[in-house]
Amino acid sequence: MSAKTTPVVGFAGWSDSGKTTLAARVVELLGRRGLRVAVVKHDAHGHYREAAGSDSSRYREAGAAAVVVASPGGTVRFDRTDKEKTLAEIAEELHGFDLIVAEGFKREPHPKIVVCRSGDLLSAVHAASPPVIAVAAPRSCGTAVRVDAERTLPVLDIDRPEAVANFLADRFFE
After folding, report:
1. Alpha-carbon distance 86 to 2, whole Å?
2. Domain extent at residue 120
3. What pLDDT, in 10s, does the model give residues 122-166?
4. I need a labelling partner for 98 at 20 to 30 A (CA). Which of 36, 37, 143, 168 fits?
5. Exposed, middle or buried by CB within 10 Å (0-12, 13-18, 19+), for 162?
6. Number of domains in the chain
7. Nearest-angstrom CA–CA distance, 169 and 173
8. Verdict on whether the full-model pTM lies above 0.85
């Protein structure tokens, strides 16, 4: 008998695309539904420092049951590591959660929503490793983006985090 694996969904996109703002609101909304959500944030540049208004403090304020920040120098929970942990390694250590929300980690193979505030949706989708399950963008970008001949992705309104929370609840819990 194997233990249930906690589903992971990522929010990926360029810097300043709105990943943290959208993901924090989604975490809050899912928490209001009684779900225990952990957040794992990737800090590719190793600039992490705990400060008021930081991404990790915003997730805690949004009600995340746990927040982990992974960077080249270590993983906050202050685990010192010789190498940067992968999302899969971190997720394996997190128990008792209904969902793990990952920010960043766009090159790892977990389901992700690409966040794109403006510009070419296709280039943002192609910058993330599969599987991309949706795009969050302004409503003016339409309701779907055709990726290739076989694949069309839904476009969720970036300004309606409740729609993103509903999409995730439908996908992972219903």
Report:
1. 22
2. 8-173
3. 889 998 999 999 999 999 999 999 998 999 999 999 999 999 999
4. 143
5. exposed
6. 1
7. 5
8. no
As given in the structure block, the two tokens for residue 78 are 């202050």
| DSSP-based three-state secondary structure for 127 | helix
Name every residue whose Cβ is closer than 8 Å to that of residue 119 and which is 6 or more positions away in sequence.
none
What distance in Å separates the CA atoms of residue 106 and residue 103, rounded to the nearest whole number?
8
Question: Both tokens of residue 93?
Answer: 């250590």
Instruction: Write down the number of H helices and E strands in the chain.
Output: 5, 9
- Amino acid identity for residue 167 in this structure: F
Within a domain: 116: yes
Q: Does residue 1 lie in a domain region?
A: no
CA distance 112 to 17: 15
What residues does 2 pair with on adjacent strands? none
> From CA 43, how far away is CA 40, in angstroms rounded?
10
